[in-house]
């Protein structure tokens, strides 16, 4: 058995974008939000993810702009650190170690160098008690430093970030918890509490849910669960410290709990939102005037406003962030993996686009890109408006399946009424090859149901010629039906080709062999094999006691085997050639699936509260790979996704990942996968941030003006006195960095044009001015040389015979040209007085 030393379980996608309120940049061009253990930076105009700020080792619990520098961003995490980022370039500037888990964070420009964090009281997470602590960030030049200056501000607070807010430009901070509102004034370092009765007249909980403070005025806004139609507006008076007096105003609109409140930067408007999925904009001191933006999707969980007040952002429970202009119109939608309460369909991979398909919004299927970690689009299956009302039974997509080419998608939607039979629809969706962008569905007559009871399984026949398309569905009505595709004058059509039963038993599962020659249908404790061409019952397979839960055929060299799991915690393997039980083992298997590109089969087993993974081949007695406790709880959905590029792994432990990658959903709806150590290191190397000096973020602007100038100065020093002009550095690294940088990161073209042109020009005047004294020196040397030559006796020329043409040519070829520095040195030597040598020699 091979262990998991070289293979790791990593979080691949689907992190919550709505876990905390997003942070908008000062120019409203970027949006940063916590997503798992990293921070994602999006463009508010293109909706694309620009950077993944990685560095935290635990869940990120908050982000906010640095008050003294709006180009930098703070992030806090449960790992006990606060990190400072240059979010426009994705560079980590500094790490502050607090050594306490941080659940939320707020800051104010009035308190420079201080952030206020919510941490567990005495550092104990299990106590459930939290305190608001002021953290003095040390101005150290080092990239990592430990925070030593901590002081408690409010002892008992809520860990919810919506329960704490600054007021009146940082003069006080308000916090709500339960039925208590506490306000702390920094100038006098005193706090005052306002409490409500625990229960109202209708015996309902009297609890505050969120708070917001006016940025300019003495005003606190809270929402109280006791008055589900009211917003309480507290207007603090200046004599609050003496008489504790206040006036209040109630506002009506919301019929359920409000999750978030937020003022605009100038305090002219108040924004509120909750489960109604409607953004309400109240006019401050003109509360009768309201603006509404309805049908935003899931329930609103957080509201944010940009520092310039141009953009609003709402986070939603369906893992979505909506970017809204200040005229209350939607400008962009950033959608993550939609996480519902459960996934009724299996995890599917679209054969055409290789994207993940599963349940999304109510009544929809979402197409999610695994490579880009982005939702591509939602396919509306139910075609009905979803009504947000508790207890209302609505249609749900419960089954989905693709054919082998990806041209057809089958879906089953059902609605279970309390006092009526189940209502279900079977739809066949054809992909439009002409447009390459839309699906057209074909549905049976609404008055005719494909089955009389709930559908239990769907499976397409993997036809090799792709000419005939067949779908098999099983139902609790005791029948399985085969549906064949045809065509008529109006286009493609489907009809029932065969109806099968077996001794009145209920079919639970069905699957086709890899070549489509056999169909396996499980009827409770019996597995039946059918010939799809003639619909003859080929044979039945006996097995140990228990109802069949899963079925799958072996592939390639293991195509003669059929695997299944039972309710009695048995994993069985039948040999189809001998029609006997090949082997069986006692293991509680919650999920069984085969890799469509290899012989490998994955089995997830639940033991002692955790899920284990076993990867094996049906013809080998030992597993290829095993991993204990891949996650806590039961894994109910998983899929093998084919790789775009084959993984060339030589280790035996990771060869099963060469062709496909295994993804699975945890009980908390997190999408996980298995990756090798080499693959993870390659990914980290590709996303490794730039190395910077002096903790200063290096931007394309500095690359253009700084690095290029330094390079130009170095060239001038090397050439020193050369007047020869060099070619413009068109292939320099600065130009390449500029051209490869996204346009939305660069300054305006008019601002860059003059500096960019100047950087490409060669300074000729400087070189001429430097060479001028050298030329003058050379001229004076020449004059001295001529005078010396005139004073020498003519016998020198007599002693030296005139060179011939051949010797002169040889000398010209052999003697290299002297540089100007060498010429000057030679002339200096010639001017030396060497007459004393004659006396020594005599």
Automatic annotation (TrEMBL):
Under the cellular component aspect of Gene Ontology, which terms does the record hold? small-subunit processome
Q: What is its main location?
A: nucleus
Q: Name one GO biological process term.
A: rRNA processing
Give every C2H2-type domain span. Answer: 33-56
Region Disordered: start and end of each range? 707-734, 767-813
Query: What Pfam families does the record tag this protein with?
Result: Beta-prop_WDR75_1st, Beta-prop_WDR75_2nd
Name the InterPro entries for this protein.
Beta-prop_WDR75_2nd (IPR057644), Quinoprotein_ADH-like_sf (IPR011047), WD40/YVTN_repeat-like_dom_sf (IPR015943), WD40_repeat_CS (IPR019775), WD40_repeat_dom_sf (IPR036322), WD40_rpt (IPR001680), WDR75 (IPR053826), Znf_C2H2_type (IPR013087)
Q: Where are the annotated WD repeats, by residue?
A: 53-95, 251-292
Q: What subcellular locations does the record give?
A: Nucleus, Nucleolus
Q: Where is the composition biased (Acidic residues)?
A: 776-792
Molecular functions (GO terms): RNA binding
Q: Which PANTHER family match?
A: WD REPEAT-CONTAINING PROTEIN 75 (PTHR44215)
Name-wise, this protein is WD repeat domain 75
Source species of the chain: Cynoglossus semilaevis (Tongue sole)
From the broadest rank down, the organism's phylogenetic lineage runs: Eukaryota, Metazoa, Chordata, Craniata, Vertebrata
